[in-house]
Amino acid sequence: MLLAMLAACSPPPTHRQQAYVFGTLVEVSVYGAPEEQARQATGAVLARFDALHRTLHAWQPSDLSRLNAALARGERATVTPELAAMLRDAQTLSVQSGHLFNPAIGGLIALWGFHSDTPQARVPNTEALSEWVARQPRMADLVIEKNTVSSSNSAVQLDLGGYAKGRALDDAVAILKTHGIENALINIGGNVIALGAHGARPWRVGIQHPRQPGTLATLDLHDGEAIGTSGDYQRFFEVDGHRYSHLIDPRTGFPASGMQSVTVLVTGKQAGTRSDALSKPLFIDGAARLADNAARLGVSDYLAVDSSGQIQLSPAMKARLR
Predict the structure, then answer these.
(1) pLDDT score at 11
(2) pTM (2 decimals)?
(3) Which of 169, 179, 245, 253 is geometrically suited to a Cys-Cys bond with 232, CB 3.0 to 4.6 A?
(4) pLDDT for 72-121, tens place per residue?
(5) Distance between CA atoms of residues 225 and 267, nearest Å
(6) Is the pLDDT confidence value at 1 over 60?
(7) CATH number at residue 298
(8) In the chain, how many domains are there?
(9) For residue 303, what are the domain limits?
(10) DSSP-derived pairing of the beta strands 77-78 and 242-245
């Protein structure tokens, strides 16, 4: 009888649900909520992820791919208010990053073969790369007037792969709150955001080692905090012993090669979106300017592994790691 009473008084166990979206495994964990409430909330989150995936897919039929087709023809296109707002948001983040976060280079990403489920393992023609770089597609080339989008630069082809997962994290938190969920952890392929805590302790998460199985370090993630990682170990191919990843430097047209991974921790408004987007310029611009770029972007917590395997830690992040 005593055991039954204790079981009745204990909080419900953690409810977890997984899916495969955005080309990666996603997991939503809810702590301390009744099973039915948790199930409905996680179902709503995963439905939102699926909707975003179908809206923002860069090479399969989607709202974004239809917009890209219109831009390539030099035409104006009408988009949903939501997509127009996301494009404005991405424009702002691109300017803040000095255009190193540049979703307008979808054409370059496709040229490298990363607009497919399996990379092509072939280095593109140098002349073709030079042509794309010379045309300098940028988010600033987009003209967004209410719900219409156009560009005078037909080289602009949008790929929001460095934005969508972070936006999905923020949307997930909002959805969970509307379902009365107070404690949850959302993980989209290593991009993670925390809501509340896991009982008496914070949520504990691991940071993937870029070259070995398992984690490089762990940290406690508190309410409203998000981590985002950019790495060369998820989507890449190798030719003649050289690794080419999907993280392309828009200044050169070639995949950035100075880093293995960069993880940032962000809190506050749009923590998920910013953690996803701001890890990109830090990765692309390399180790030598890491501290300066992080300070300019307002990122105080970062962990980076450069191309030689050396680790760089900000003092704030070092204090958080285990």
Answers:
(1) 59
(2) 0.94
(3) 245
(4) 999 999 999 999 999 999 999 999 999 999 999 999 999 999 998 888 88
(5) 4
(6) no
(7) 3.10.520.10
(8) 1
(9) 14-322
(10) unpaired
pLDDT of residue 2: 44
Neighbouring residues of 220: CB distance < 8 A, sequence distance ≥ 6: 201, 202, 203, 204, 320
pLDDT-based confidence at residue 5 (cuts at 50, 70, 90):
very low
Flag whether pLDDT at 32 surpasses 70.
yes
- Tell me phi and psi for residue 170, to 5 degrees: -65, -40
Q: Is residue 5 part of a domain?
A: no
Does residue 2 belong to any structural domain of this protein?
no
Residue 6 counted as domain residue: no
Q: What is the mean pLDDT of the chain?
A: 94
Does the structure show a pLDDT above 70 at 7?
Answer: no
Residue type, 169: L
- Going 230 to 231 to 234 to 239, the CA torsion angle's sign is positive
HEC sequence for the chain: CHHHHHHHHCCCCCEEEEEEECCEEEEEEECCCCHHHHHHHHHHHHHHHHHHHHHHCCCCCCHHHHHHHHHHCCCCEECCHHHHHHHHHHHHHHHHCCCCCCCCEHHHHHHCCCCCCCCCCCCCCHHHHHHHHHHCCCHHHEEEECCEEEECCCCCECCCCCCHHHHHHHHHHHHHHHCCCCCEEEEECCEEEEECCECCECEEEEEECCCCCCEEEEEEECCCCEEEEEECCCCEEEECCEEEECCECCCCCCECCCEEEEEEEECCCCHHHHHHHHHHHHHHHCCCCHHHHHHHHCCCEEEEEECCCCEEECHHHHCCEC
pLDDT the model gives residue 10: 58
Q: How far apart are CA 139 and CA 121, in angstroms?
A: 28
